[in-house]
């Protein structure tokens, strides 16, 4: 993703801390003195940021501070950002859908919630609320603009050919049929991201449409994005778009779209624990599927923990079904100083290094037209730049369809 940082003129640099402190006060008007010391466009930008934060950060019933510094606000379900959408105003979340046939029985939701740092203290949001990571002024200032905050760059970020647009992939994919969902277990690491304007992620893509402006995607997984979150922790995330990332969609709950129904999972919060080199391995299991009755796309984490849904009216092509499913990793290579980035994908190790070193996806499945969860057929694997990041697939009785993927980026073969 493109990045720009908030800059101030040298003559007024000493006033930055004072002005940012004033933004946290309840007063809505900026001090008159600042109006004479700051360029008008900067004041206008800061006012837009404050207005955007008031829209995003709803009044909480309770706030929980995680050990990683995140503030998790417990927001009444009907006040979450999704219900700012004109088609959802005044409504409540719909009833849970019929789960795909072939799923394991529902597990203990108390076990599933332990994968996030903020819940490690034992605190939780009360019934009737959902946990939402609070957005700060610093979060928005790291974005290229207020309008583009929480959005991917306006270009197709789906692996479609070998040309490079700065985004590089190592993915497994299926196409040629109609898909109504996908499921996989994603190995979680904390890959090194070289610059704030780059990211590294691992996710499931549900895709429909051409690779033009009608591209529809639903995405879920984990990512390290210093620009979006301000740190290098792997975080649980979602994304959606209906116009190839032009104007619609966003990460997580940073616009009206995804409806959260769960009070135990905070989208955008850090994942813990994570895997270590030659040590214990951790993965998260994610399922995305289309409710056969109402057509909404639901997201489930782990043993039956429903996170929420993307309403069907958000989509054009995905209103029917998906025509392609992708699983795998993606990084951004800004190519600074004419050299390939050292941002890592997955664990930062190549696929051939295997378990305990390379990152993996396992138990790859899709949902068919009759709401059956079935193993993927005709899985293809490919990498845009195999000297930088590669992928190697397989199948066995324990992991079903799986693959290892990733790499270190810049090395003697990738420059």
TrEMBL record:
PROSITE patterns: NEPROSIN_PEP_CD. The keyword Ribosomal protein does not apply. It holds the Pfam family Neprosin_AP. Residues 1-29 form the signal peptide. Residues 161-415 form the Neprosin PEP catalytic domain. Keywords: Signal. Residues 84-106 are annotated as: Disordered. Gene3D superfamilies: Outer-capsid protein sigma 3, large lobe. It comes from the Eukaryota. This is Neprosin PEP catalytic domain-containing protein. It comes from Colocasia esculenta (Wild taro).
